[in-house]
Design goal:
Number of strands: 17
Number of domains: 1
Structural class: alpha+beta
Oligomer: single chain
Number of helices: 8
Radius of gyration: 18 Å
Helix content: 25-40%
Mean pLDDT: 88
Length: 247
């Protein structure tokens, strides 16, 4: 099975990458910048509202990329008042965006607390979270998932630099295998049909940043990182060639 999307052909089998249909100058051009801490604080507040209402929110962090700096705007947000999803009608008002985000609301059974000494509750990115990042590129270049105690950033800048495009089927297969690992299986539980993990911040960072990310980067050129809201804000990168070509 294949689908044509924005001049790319994606083959749905066990392959992990395809050729990216992009003409570039000799040197790959990217710009990396640190996310301002106020943006992280805003995203945390939106997640807290998402958990309080038990609704998923989605939005964009608009930015203007200049020759020497990147200017960030406050995050926008929309919701369909549904815990599991934001409908296309609302999503289309804020996406695509170079930096897009959505929330995974906290579990209902345990109040969201600031202290993480006794462990945390986490979620994993869904197949749709990877697919929107892959198929939405280059209009969407950084996909942020706001979780209870931290946030994911998914990008495919490494793949773009190799002139490759990850395949959604490859990401799906990788996440199936990851979820089946014994150390992940022992953490998982369900609430209202939604998947959650009882873990610690240190353990979850190791699972994601050192193990899952290492495989994704090597095989598919996808970077997936997990940060706590209190961590030093990370750097994100943009494929400047693609931004120029889509203007």
């Amino acid at each position: 099975m294949h689908v044509i999307y924005k001049n790319y052909i994606f083959i749905y089998n066990y392959r992990t990458v395809a050729i990216m249909n992009t003409v570039r100058p000799q040197m790959f051009q990217k710009k990396c910048t640190k996310i301002p801490r106020p943006i992280i604080r805003d995203l945390k507040k939106i997640h807290e509202l998402s958990s309080k209402k038990s609704w998923e929110y989605a939005g964009a962090v608009k930015c203007k990329i200049g020759p020497t700096s990147v200017k960030f705007e406050k995050p926008s947000f929309v919701t369909s008042r549904d815990r599991r999803r934001v409908n296309l009608e609302e999503i289309n008002t804020v996406w695509p965006s170079l930096i897009a985000y959505h929330t995974h609301p906290h579990i209902l059974a345990v109040p969201l607390k600031n202290s993480v000494n006794k462990g945390i509750f986490a979620t994993l990115p869904s197949n749709a979270d990877f697919e929107v990042c892959i198929l939405g590129f280059p209009q969407m270049q950084n996909n942020i998932i706001c979780d209870s105690y931290g946030y994911y950033i998914i990008d495919m800048i490494d793949a773009a630099e190799r002139n490759k495009s990850p395949l959604p089927a490859g990401a799906k297969r990788t996440m199936i295998d990851f979820r089946q690992r014994p150390e992940i299986q022992k953490c998982v539980f369900s609430e209202s049909g939604l998947e959650y993990y009882k873990t610690t911040l240190k353990e979850w960072k190791r699972f994601i940043n050192k193990e899952l990310n290492a495989y994704f980067r090597k095989v598919m050129g996808i970077t997936i990182r997990y940060y706590s809201y209190d961590d030093e804000p990370p750097y994100i990168c943009f494929d400047i060639d693609q931004i120029i070509n889509t203007k």
